[in-house]
Design goal:
Layout lengths: L14 E4 L4 H6 L8 E5 L7 E2 L6 H8 L4 E4 L13 H16 L3 E7 L9 E2 L10 H15 L4 E6 L1 E2 L14 E3 L8 E2 L1 E2 L1 H11 L8 E4 L5 E2 H8 L4 E3 L8 E4 L17 H11 L4
InterPro entries: Epimerase_deHydtase, NAD(P)-bd_dom_sf
Protein name: NAD-dependent epimerase/dehydratase domain-containing protein
Organism: Ascidiaceihabitans donghaensis
């Protein structure tokens, strides 16, 4: 595991991560274990702060009070009968608690899903055309946050290599959509260690925009990731409505954190995923 350079955090004494037991929380916890972080969970978990975000505003204020930065990962994801409105409600509760305690900037986990079928290089100020309830809920969350008085940044996080169906969820009977060019769909990706490093690099920064793409430069074919991992696959006719390419612009992100050329390589992402399996 590569270490996280936390030298810029010397002046920070408290970072709060809300929703630590979810997918994103599990991605970054191993890399942030030596940093000044309080991890929140609604369920009782060893080493976590147990607070109900929606139903315990006093507990939320106590948790967030004095925080230099708050990373809100809490929210609903793709699953049957999910109440997608919770993405807005949870974010609002965190922002309200931060406002009431004069905490530092709140970072809200949004998603590349807000872009949906938008074409070309996707910039934070460009079109957002979500194609599903999850993307629409995240965009609703962003709109709420933009109107909130407490400083916040919505992080439009790309696919995470090793935390989606490709790589970690791959099974031999699965197949990739084959587009007209003969290749699989391409997506902006970010590796697990790179994600942890980028998010930590943002903590404590104050001069940040309201929306920020979180990815590495350039889209990657799903087939390229599987090739780098040595995983066999087949192609299938593309599903109706499949989006061929989701390419997040990272220019704005790179004004605030450093990305290395190798961070965009499928081989790097696969290596980070494999290392992560040894530290879970």
């Amino acid at each position: 595991m590569s270490s996280i350079d936390a030298s810029h955090l010397r002046t920070l004494s408290k970072i709060v991560v809300v929703g630590a037991t979810g997918r994103l929380g599990k991605c970054i916890r191993p890399y942030w274990k030596d940093l000044p972080v309080l991890w929140q969970s609604r369920r009782v978990e060893y080493g976590f702060e147990t607070v109900d975000v929606l139903n315990d505003p006093k507990g939320m204020r106590q948790l967030i009070n004095g925080a230099d930065a708050v990373l809100c990962l809490a929210g609903e994801t793709y699953k049957p009968n999910a109440n997608m409105a919770l993405n807005v409600d949870l974010a609002r509760a965190v922002l309200d608690a931060a406002r009431d305690t004069a905490a530092g900037r709140v970072f809200l986990a949004s998603s590349a899903a807000v872009y949906g079928a938008a074409n070309g290089l996707l910039t934070e100020d460009g079109p957002a055309i979500p194609q599903n309830d999850y993307g629409r809920a995240k965009l609703d969350m962003e709109h709420m946050a933009q109107a909130h008085l407490h400083p916040n940044t919505a992080l439009r996080i790309s696919n995470i290599a090793g935390a989606d169906a490709i790589l970690a969820g791959w099974t031999p009977e699965m197949a990739l959509d084959q587009l007209e060019d003969g290749r699989a769909p391409r997506r902006s990706y970010i590796g697990l260690e790179t994600l942890a490093r980028v998010l930590m690099g943002l903590m404590g920064q104050s001069d940040l925009p309201k929306r920020l793409n979180v990815a590495t430069p350039g889209p990657i074919g799903m087939d390229s990731l599987l090739d780098a991992a040595g995983l066999a696959y087949t192609y299938r006719a593309p599903a109706t409505g499949v989006i061929g390419c989701v390419n997040l612009c990272t220019k704005r992100l790179q004004n605030h954190v450093k990305l290395m050329p190798e961070d965009s390589a499928p081989e790097t992402m696969v290596a980070q995923w494999r290392r992560s399996q040894d530290i879970q």
